[in-house]
Amino acid sequence: MAKAFRRLGFEVIQVLDGNQEQMETALNCFNEKLKQQNGVGVFYYAGHGVQVKGENYLIPVNVNLTQEGQVKYRTLPLEMVISTMETANNKPNNINIIILDSCNNDPFSGSWNRSFNIQGLAPIQTTRSGSLIAYATQPGKTVDDSGLFTVRILEKIEQPGLDVLDLFRQVGQEIAEGTGSEQVPAITLSSLPDFSFNPSGAGFLPPPPPPTSTRTERLTAIQFYNRGNDKREQGDYQGAIEDYTQAVTLKPDYAVAYHDRGFARDDLGDYLGAIEDYNQAIRLNPDYANAYNNRGAARSNLEDYEGAIVDYTQAIKLDPDYAVAYHNRGNARYNLEDYEGAIADYTQSIRFNPDNAVAYHNRGLARYELGDYEGEIADYDQAIRLDPDYAEAYYNRGLTYKIQGKIERARADFLKAADLYRQQGNKEWYEDAIYQLLRLE
User: Fold this and answer.
1) What's the pLDDT score for residue 239?
2) Contact, 128 vs 83, CB < 8 A?
3) Which string of DSSP letters, residue by residue, matches 59-70?
4) Which residues pair with 42 in a beta bridge?
5) Digit-coded pLDDT (tens) for 204-249
6) pLDDT tens digit string along 134-157?
7) How far, in Å, are 86, 193, 198, 243 from residue 130 at the CA level?
8) CB-based contact 412:428 (threshold 8 Å)
9) In 3-state terms, the chain is what percent helix, strand and coil (to 5)?
10) Cis omega (within 30 of 0) on the bond before 354?
11) How far apart are CA 421 and CA 423, in angstroms?
């Protein structure tokens, strides 16, 4: 699907098998791009979805849900997606499309000790003019994870001149007939203008481009940007920087391209260059929460922790649920020996992302500095429950057990840490864990 949209000239933010944090970060980036480019917005999701009390939630990978009350805090609410697209105010196109190949049957494989029935997604009332939501099956119904909805869309989406409503009606009719009405796709919409994903054949004509750019320049900038993203994903950071540079040369107000070039420079350890790019992204879009967060990270890498805290605080002001920014600010406060402030930030990060093992581990480190050994060990315990291969959590728990005189527990943790470090190829820390073991003798 990502390849098809790129061929159609869309910028694509692709998340494969994403956790909650990755999904939320991508959604924030999606919002920024819609604001910057005023383009047609398309959100495509293939995976598990569930409704709870009439609200819909998209399920990240590797999430452990055992109670209904956990759903709200460990998933991506579909309402957040809708709100993200509506608040982008992407005029003049004013078109937002959500494609949900979800509502799959029993995403929890028996792990959810539930007292209610799993149902398909609840119906969604679209309030914004120019909105369309396409479901793999009727709201309230479930369907096996066959991917048939996506397959049928891919067969038609690049057909020249095919109106989007006709596309989904044809897809729905073919699937309903082919499954004996076991699966009947559905759509809801609100005042959608004529639109085709590939308008070259007939029908929809794109609105005139901004006077500062030609259509060719805009598409070329998008192509450079997308190629830069592909190169960065492959680890070719210098190649990515070159493509992002071409993108901003053709489109000087391309805030997202400046931001992502900063990310690539960050990957190469060029933190000053990264900060310059984040500065430009913020000048172009003062409400760019991700740019503040990532500029804070670059400043932290330069040990400018005070400056980093200012940036993380601004990111949180713009996005009060920004778990990563709370976590990063906690790290900066820890480095400034503000351990109570660090604990408060890690706690907020955990509140918004309860599956973040690193946040529990780092909160444990801060509690150690305050002499709260029991709280520290409780945090390491939770980090290990979330990530059984977390070598640092075993190692640091072993150190605290040693302080407490719990030698056998310390021995077991150092042995486990040494084994994990060996498997990870981390010779230095493997040798250190062995050294700690020998000192117990």
Assistant:
1) 94
2) no
3) PPTT----SGGG
4) 97
5) 334 444 444 443 334 478 888 888 888 998 999 999 999 999 999 9
6) 888 887 676 665 678 888 899 888
7) 10, 6, 18, 33
8) no
9) 55, 10, 35
10) no
11) 5
